Amino acid sequence: MIENLLQMMDYKKCGEVFYCGNDAEYKYFSGIRVWQCDEDESEVVYWIRTQAFASGYDIKKQNDTIRYFKKYCQAYFESDIGKNRYFETGRLIKGAESGCYFAIQNLDNHFSLLSHSLSKYPDDVEAEKSIVEFGLPTPSSFNANVYLSYLCSLIEEFFRATYIAWLKYSDKKEKILNVKFSPYDMVDISERTKTVETVVMLSHKKPTV
């Protein structure tokens, strides 16, 4: 019964976990995961989880899932704010605004990861500095170059994701998408591995808004 209920709510089963998220409308940022964690003769326990950086739609979906469990399974629940207490969703943003939020949130998460990684690599010790004489970079110099490239790719991805979000909901979309697609692009669009907006953004001739 639980599995049928989750599937009716658009959850997909991935191993032992049910997952809902990754939609194309910039709603679910972290997604919602549901899995059975315990069972005995008296009760069955399920975890329903979102991440700390979940969007309002993630939390709303989590609340709706809990609500249906409570209604159709004669269940009770305990959340971070108490027994049978639902989470506050906050303001639900959508469209291009939500897409831009996703872009900046992803950038912030990757900046945090980069900052953490840099803290794990202190300055070169004295013995390592001598390898410069052999034409080799020291570990700190090598890391600086690698992470600089990574930083540039993060910023590039931020602007790409922001542009795609604006393009998807632009009132000038018809004029902007007046470009030719290659057969390979058409296959990707047909198979839904890429969106039209993504193909336009990745094309050599970038349109202007």
* Major beta sheet, strand line-up: 1-2-3-4
Radius of gyration: 23 Å
- Based on CA inertia axes, which overall geometry fits? extended
**Could you spell the SSE succession in H and E letters?**
HEEEEHEEHHHHHH
> What percent of residues are in strands?
5-15%
Produce the secondary structure layout.
Blueprint: H1 2-8, E1 12-14, E2 17-20, E3 32-39, E4 44-49, H2 56-72, E5 78-79, E6 82-83, H3 95-119, H4 126-129, H5 139-168, H6 173-176, H7 183-190, H8 196-202
Antiparallel strand pairs: 1-2, 2-3, 3-4, 5-6
Describe the structure.
- This protein is of the alpha+beta class and 209 residues long.
- The protein contains 8 helices and 6 strands.
- The protein has helices at residues 2-8, 56-72, 95-119, 126-129, 139-168, 173-176, 183-190, 196-202, and strands spanning 12-14, 17-20, 32-39, 44-49, 78-79, 82-83.
- The strands form 2 sheets. A 4-stranded antiparallel beta sheet has the order 1-2-3-4, covered by helices on one side.
- The model is unreliable at 204-209 (pLDDT under 50).
